[in-house]
Design a protein that fits this description.
Blueprint (H helix, E strand, L loop, with lengths): L13 H12 L5 H8 L3 H15 L13 H54 L1
């Protein structure tokens, strides 16, 4: 009984994938010609091209399927931005509350001191 060798697909770097896609999209190579010259399957290259086109139009491909880690990084940064915005809103509200207490205490002290000043001037 012969064993069939299973060819494990190689892991390509994100830069390799982007360069391969660039051959087709930016340098007018055919998908077949670019795939042959890079020793990859044409359908693999077509998949990378499809993902890059989606990225260029603003669509974020599902995690794990993207030729780059950019979509994942974008999602992380969006989550971080939301958290920072919430923190900023809390700080704004706290500042507003503290300042309103400060001004109300200051106004109360000002009114009482001005009443004392008025009483002193009236006694002259």
């Amino acid at each position: 009984m012969r064993r069939r060798l299973i060819r494990k697909s190689p892991h390509h770097t994100a830069q390799f994938k982007l360069d391969a896609v660039s051959f087709v999209l930016d340098q007018d190579y055919s998908t077949k010609r670019a795939a042959e010259s890079l020793d990859i399957r044409p359908d693999t290259l077509r998949e990378w091209i499809r993902h890059v086109k989606r990225e260029r139009t603003g669509q974020t491909p599902a995690q794990g399927n993207a030729p780059t880690s950019d979509p994942q990084r974008i999602q992380e940064l969006e989550a971080k931005t939301k958290r920072i915005e919430r923190e900023k809103d809390i700080l704004k509200k706290a500042t507003t509350l503290l300042m309103s207490e400060f001004w109300s205490d200051r106004d109360a002290n000002f009114v009482s001191s001005s009443m004392e000043d008025t009483a002193i001037y009236q006694s002259f």
